[in-house]
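In this supplementary section we document a worked example of the pipeline. Step one takes a protein sequence of length 335 as its only input; no multiple sequence alignment statistics are reported here. Step two produces a three-dimensional model, which step three serialises into structure tokens for compact storage. The input and output of this example are shown verbatim.
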Amino acid sequence: MSILFPGIIHVTGEPDSGKTTFAIECGVSPDRMVFIDADIKASAIVNELKESGNSFFEYIDLIKKIADKKENEIYDIVIKIIDDLEKKKGQFDVIVFDNWTLFENVLEPYVEANLSKFRQKWSPMGQIKGAQMWQSSFDLEAQILNRLAEISPLVILTTHLKPEVRQNVKTGRQIADCKKPLVQKTHLRIWLHLSKDSPEPIGLVLKRISKHTITKDGIKTINVLPRKLVPCTWDKIREYWNNPIGNRKPLPEELLDEYEMSVLDGILTEDQKLVLKLNLDGGNLDEEDKIPDENKFADDVVEKVRKMKEDGKSIPVISRETKLNIPDIIKILEQ
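The serialised model returned by step three reads:
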């Protein structure tokens, strides 16, 4: 089996949702795969491959290489890795960088420490200069991503999630831990989250791939994937590649729930994460945490909870202030 399509893929999502597994199951045999390990997770995979008489074309333990190194040194180490891979172009089909954020976060400090390499003149005003450095780091990342795409037919970059912060205040939302260049340069972006029905994750397609056909009216673009993949596996993606969704109406299993819609809209709230967790836990909640089957709350309690929610308070805050447990609050709000 070979790669399904070339380009850069970004895989993000919840902890233990299968980001690394998804990356290495892209259809390329290990001996045609470069794995850059910046998350210490692949060592077990390497050992399993060795036991079966197989190995990656190249496995790079980046964590070991950059131990106790500063940002400039980390940058130089990764660029040296890319330089070496460029000399071996054609000997591998995919580069997996797990996770990309570690390297991405050294680019802005690298620019700051090497200003003369990026601009002849910098603003004397601190705020403007900071914006200029930020933009230069974006430009640098875009150049490196372009390089990787030229070296390897397929590049898969993973990232974790991080709390969204605006004006130094956490919003209660989570977003992919990556910067604008990665969003712009990728051909496919997928957010993995756990499924309550299967060990295989659900995939929310943040950026879709497309096919192009020639018709009598010219070029026609066809969407390959729906916004939701159940399960999110390469076998499922191949099914859609052979039978694209196009502009048809989504099937029931392709429809997004409220939680998934919020992910695509970039507004994953703490409240929605709590609801999702309860849904995933199903019947495994502790007895004291189970959501009651009937309304056992006084009208004034219900009114107070709803008013607090309307005022913008989160479910954890409402729980602390009313002494109600979280499942009860969710039950009240759903009535």
